[in-house]
Design a protein that fits this description.
The chain is built from three helices and seven strands, in the order E-H-H-E-E-E-E-E-E-H. It has 145 residues and is an alpha+beta fold.
Length: 145
């Protein structure tokens, strides 16, 4: 088992970022590694509640993941189980997102743990970096408008 941690600084308050992480409208703005659309986003944001997200990549492939919310502490922390539907990655892993106020807005620390192997970790690192890039761009665009 292996894990990855990504840290980003985003120009928005933690509560606004938390909503982007947990609402279907927010998820539609950033989920997925490239410019492809989110096709489905369902969330029930409470401990024991579930989420499900399906997106299409620019190459036309579709990917769907789901899981259960394990910790919900708005606006500071979110933890959830993670599983690909369709057998892309065997087993269940865990995502933890911590949001901390900083002068520029929020420091987001994203940890995906219990990944199957190094190849899975690399693949998820590429994917999450692409998605977090979109999240940062989304808030930069909002700030300019």
């Amino acid at each position: 088992m292996t894990s990855l941690t990504l840290v980003r600084r985003i120009a928005a308050r933690p509560s606004i970022i938390f909503d982007a992480l947990t609402t279907p409208e927010g998820i539609a703005c950033w989920w997925g590694p490239d410019g492809g659309p989110v096709l489905l986003a369902e969330t029930d944001v409470r401990v024991g509640g579930r989420f499900r997200v399906r997106f299409r990549m620019l190459d036309g492939s579709e990917h769907e993941s789901s899981g259960e919310y394990l910790e919900v502490a708005k606006p500071d922390r979110l933890a959830m189980s993670w599983r690909w539907l369709g057998g892309e990655d065997p087993g269940e892993s865990r995502i933890e997102i911590d949001l901390r106020v900083i002068a520029e807005g929020t420091e987001l620390t994203f940890t995906h743990s219990r990944l199957h192997d190094e190849e899975t970790r690399r693949s998820h690192e590429d994917g999450w970096n692409g998605a977090l890039d979109k999240l940062e761009r989304h808030f930069r665009a909002l700030k300019r408008s």
